[in-house]
Amino acid sequence: MVGRLEGKVALVTGGRGGIGRAICARFIREGATVYAADLSDAGSMGVALANDGRFVRLDVTAEDEAIAAMAEVERTSGKLDILVNAAGIELEKTIEHTTLEEWNRSFAVNVTGTFLAAKHGLRLLRRAAAGGTTASIINFGSYDGFIADPGLAAYCATKGAVHALTRAMAVDHGPEGIRVNAICPGYVDTPMLQSFFSGAGSGGKGGTIDSLKEAVRNVHPIRNYGTPDDIANLVNWLASDEARYATGQLWVLDGGLSAQVQQMRL
User: Are 217 and 85 in the same domain?
Assistant: First the structure.
């Protein structure tokens, strides 16, 4: 059976993280050549595996590394059909307790990183689109770009910026055959979520994901939180030619969390 992405080339930033690794694995199963771009081969999961894409070193905040990563893709594959900007960080603080350095770091990773990867990937994406199919950029926003969790001010601001940037890129580069969308996840079981719950900030007040599992489920209409594979499923469709008419959209995937009136859960 031929996969949806047979013959396509993809680069995933944050490709060694929880969601990024799931995306890489799904793309490989669908027949794509995959470059997993991250700070290290082990990534946030703390382990390097043999079946989740070719590792490319990339600090998304460094323009020279973005240029080098795209040069490696061009040297070894000659084109880029799919760019997924999944690298991201979360800061659990209000603005009062956020330093300027922390604020700038949040924007550097979540927003500037998206900008740099897309900017320097465009030439290769155009080359792929010239072959008669659309190329695809998939950014990562968040439901926190629409509404706010307490104590995540910088994170919410960065995701709102990614949402606006996604629309602007879709408008600018659609005529070139490049589609641009954003995935906006809710709670997903990743190292970032576990850190959120175990931290002293706005998450679990020092608890663990195990002790909070039932509470997390209960705030969702679907009574569950997401997995990296849930996100990878939607990313896979947006990356494929089946989504040829989908661009400029913010795809919320949050188990219905943002659809409900919150006080109705009381």
Answer: no
pLDDT band at 232 (very low <50, low <70, confident <90, very high): very high
The closest alpha carbon to 195, from 15, 18, 24, belongs to 18
**What number is the average pLDDT over the span 15-23?**
95
**What pLDDT is attached to residue 74?**
98
Q: Are residues 84 and 211 in the same domain?
A: no
**Could you give the C-alpha distances from 232 to 12, 43, 114, 206, in angstroms and in order?**
11, 18, 18, 29
**What residues make up the domain containing 13?**
9-186+228-252
Between CA 108 and CA 229 the distance in angstroms is: 27
What are the tokens at 242?
């089946």
Q: How far apart are CA 234 and CA 136, in angstroms?
A: 13
Above 70 in pLDDT, residue 118? yes
Statement to judge: residues 174 and 193 lie in one domain: no
Catalytic residue among 155, 187, 225, 245: 155
- The pLDDT, as a whole number, for residue 2 is 72
**Residue type, position 152, single letter:** L
- Select from 207, 84, 171 the least CA-distant residue to 136: 84
CATH code of residue 151: 3.40.50.720
Contact between residue 19 and residue 228 where contact means Cβ atoms under 8 Å apart: yes
Give me the amino acid identity at 92. E
Q: Whole-prediction pTM value? A: 0.91
**241 and 159 in a common domain:** yes
- Least confident range from 38-52, 154-168, 243-257: namely 38-52
**Does residue 182 sit in the same domain as residue 196?**
no
Clarify whether 155 is annotated catalytic: yes
Rg (CA), the chain: 18
DSSP β-bridge partners for residue 250: 182
